[in-house]
Amino acid sequence: MELDIMLRKRFIGLFVLALMFAACGNGKSNGNDQKTLDSADQKKSAAANKKNILFFGTSLTAGYGLDPTEAFPALIQNRIDSLNLPYNVINGGLSGETSAAGKGRINWLLKQPIDIFVLELGANDGLRGLPVKQTIKNLQDIIDTVKTKYPNVKIVIAGMQMPPSMGAKYTNDFKNIFPDLARKNNMALIPFLLDKVGGIPKLNQDDGIHPTAEGDKILAENVWVVLKPLL
């Protein structure tokens, strides 16, 4: 009889200890779960608080012939991340895009909030010899659309130049499109996106038009100098 009582007491004691360990274990698990939830909430909050920078342009923005991580908008994102700045870069580049095509596409991209808009269009117009007045009107329409949708948006326009083979008058008129629009609309201006890259064979792909990965690093610097004060 005494043995049975002792065994029962021992069993009850072990059972109580097991419950205590289980309770402790559940407490730790709940604590870890709470930390995980808190971390997830913080990440969601950080993502929600980030502002968007839309790069809207041609194959130069899209990074034609390059890995997407080598295109200059991606390099800008890397720079932003290294400085812990709350901005998310959206690459809205499309190969072959003209100013007219861009005007038809811009509304779709503006469905997401935009805080900074970098406009890189016109190069394909120039290479096709399209009328300068037409390019100016299309670019102005895009700018107006962006401002109407987001009145507080900051806009950067990337300057472009044509080769002399397009003729002196056309080349000069085309070059003036971008500084003129920048002044008219109070926008920041990248004087020449391809500065220190255009016309340099080793920094361009075989087509002589699109930069290599090394060339895009220089493009990123050309953009960053103008973009940084706006962040």
Record keyword descriptors for this entry.
single chain, 231 residues, alpha/beta, 5 strands, 12% strand
Show the helix and strand layout.
Layout: H1 2-49, E1 51-57, H2 59-62, H3 72-82, E2 87-93, H4 99-109, E3 116-120, H5 123-127, H6 132-149, E4 154-158, H7 168-185, E5 188-190, H8 213-227
Helix pairs in contact: 3-8, 4-6, 6-7
What is this structure, in a nutshell?
This protein has 231 residues and is α/β, with parallel strands linked by helices. 56% of the residues lie in helices and 12% in strands. It has a 5-stranded parallel β-sheet, with helices on both faces.
Q: Can you walk through the features of this model?
A:
The protein is an alpha/beta fold. It is 56% helix and 12% strand. The protein has 8 helices and 5 strands. The protein has helices at residues 2-49, 59-62, 72-82, 99-109, 123-127, 132-149, 168-185, 213-227, and strands spanning 51-57, 87-93, 116-120, 154-158, 188-190. It has a 5-stranded parallel beta sheet, with helices on both faces. The chain is globular and about 70 Å long.
The rounded Rg comes to: 29 Å
Class by helix and strand content? alpha/beta
Placed side by side, the strands forming the largest sheet appear as 2-1-3-4-5
Question: What percent of the residues sit in helical stretches (DSSP H or I)?
Answer: 55-70%
